[in-house]
Every structure is written in C-alpha cells, then in structure tokens.
Amino acid sequence: MILSLLLALLWLCSGFVNGLTSFGANLLAIPVMSLFMPPKDAIITACFGGLAVTVTIVFMYRSHLNYKELLKFFLPCLITVPLGTEVLQSLSSAALLLLAGGVMLLFLIWQGVASRLPLGGACPAWSVFAAGGAAGLLVAATGMGGPPFAVYAMLRRWDKETSLAMINMSGVLSLLITIGAQWQQGLLTPTVQHAAAIAVPASVVGVLCSLPLLRRMNIDLFRRLVLIMVALATATMFVRGISLL
How far is it, in rounded angstroms, from Cα 173 to Cα 153? Predict the structure, then answer.
C-alpha cells in the first residue's frame, strides 16, 4: 500500500514537472522507481507513464503535427525497438542502471551545449530516420528515448508549439511500439501491470495540474532546478550501478 502511494505521488510529480518544462517525467521517475523495484520493471513501468504524459501533451498541441515527417520517424523505430528490447532483457541490473545513467548524462550535456551550437544550413533529409532509429533503441532499452528527436527538433528550428507536438508524438509512436514488443516478449508481469495502472492516471493528473501555472511561474528557474534534480538522479544511477558490479 505504501509503495503504491509512493508510486502515485512520484508519477504525479513527474507529470507535473513534464507539463511545466516539456521534459523530465521518465528522467526523474526511473531513478526513483529503481530504488524500490528492479531496474527492468522500473523501465517498463516508465514506458506506460511516459506514454500517458506524451498523449496528454500531444492532445493539447495536435494542430501542430506534421504526419508525413512522423511517418519517417516511425519506420526506423520498427527496426530498432526490438533491438532495444533484446538489450533490456539481456543486461544485468547493474548494466541497466549504468546505461540509463549514461543516457541521462548525455541529456544533461546536451542541455548545456545546445544553446551554443551554430544552426546554419538545412537539416539533412536522413536525420529524421537517424533520430527515429536512435529514439526507438533508447526508449526500448532504457525507457528514455526523447533526446534524439529533441536534437532533430532543434536542427529543424521549429517553433515551441510544433516542437512540443512533434517531440511528444514521436514519444507516443516509439512507446507504443516498445510496449507492444514488451508484451510480445512476456515482460508485462503482474507487478509491472499493477505499477502501470497507478502510473498512468497519476501522470495525466500531474500534467493537468501544471497547466494553470504555466503563465504564472518562472519556467526558466524551474527548469534549472529540475536539471539539478536530474543531475543528482544521474549520479545516483551511476553509484548504484557500480555498487552492483
């Protein structure tokens, strides 16, 4: 009962953070869940919570979707998600923690350098396929596949609304394929199903609770605080992963 309440509170907060900053749900939830459940179960549960968050945000920005571009993203996911699922199944708990920590570290590095990078020239046509392939592999293996398409969105120089719509819809597509692959491999255990049944509604409520504060809060300051939390969570993942070797 206590763990169920903790899980609901965690996903309520994760959805709230994601609603305000456009990132953070799985980056925050997976490290915390891995403290009281196996890393593999934490990653799979996060796929359901992350799907609920992204669907909610896509619904709000659905008029800004580019379906032709999303199809190009979707196709390589069909190839790389099964590969990522195999990685998830084959790695030990220590290796999964270190891999997830590595993805989080790359995200933090990207947040630090993205604003300083030059954006001259057109975005290569093949980059959407590369983003889709990388996102599918990462989301299936670690539950965190957003960074590759976020990089692509920046290269495309979309406005805020289009970026939010496209990044979150890419998450919906890759997560749906991932959950299908997990079901096919028999990874959706009763424990995961119970955790997912808590995570999904809690995360949606969290996103909805963030909406009234979008125009009242200093979002830049809040994003910095979230990045500090992600950095601490990243360090925790590495420490726990190394301790289990």
Answer: 16
Q: Tell me how far apart the 2 most distant CA atoms of the chain are, in Å.
A: 55
- 58: three-class secondary structure by DSSP: helix
Mean pLDDT of the chain: 87
| Spatial CB neighbours of 152, under 8 Å, sequence gap ≥ 6 | 123, 127, 128, 130, 131
Question: Is 61:161 a contact under the CB 8 Å cutoff?
Answer: yes
3-state helix, strand, coil in the chain (%, to 5): 85, 0, 15
* Among 164, 167, 99, 168, residue whose Cα is nearest residue 137: 99
Residues 79, 149: Cα–Cα separation, whole Å: 16
Tokens 């424990």 locate to: 191
Which pair of structure tokens corresponds to residue 229? 């939390």
Residue 177, φ and ψ in degrees, nearest 5: -65, -40
Token readout for 65 is 């979707």
Distance between CA atoms of 240 and 76, rounded to whole angstroms?
Answer: 33
Q: Tell me the pLDDT band of 119, cut-offs 50, 70 and 90.
A: low
CA distance 64 to 97: 36
Residue 124 DSSP one-character state: P
Number of domains in the chain: 1
Domain ranges, residue 88: 2-243
Q: Is 176 exposed, middle or buried (0-12, 13-18, 19+ CB in 10 A)?
A: middle
Count CB neighbours of 130 within 10 A.
15
Q: What are the pLDDT digits (tens) for 128-167?
A: 898 889 889 989 999 888 778 878 887 788 888 888 888 8
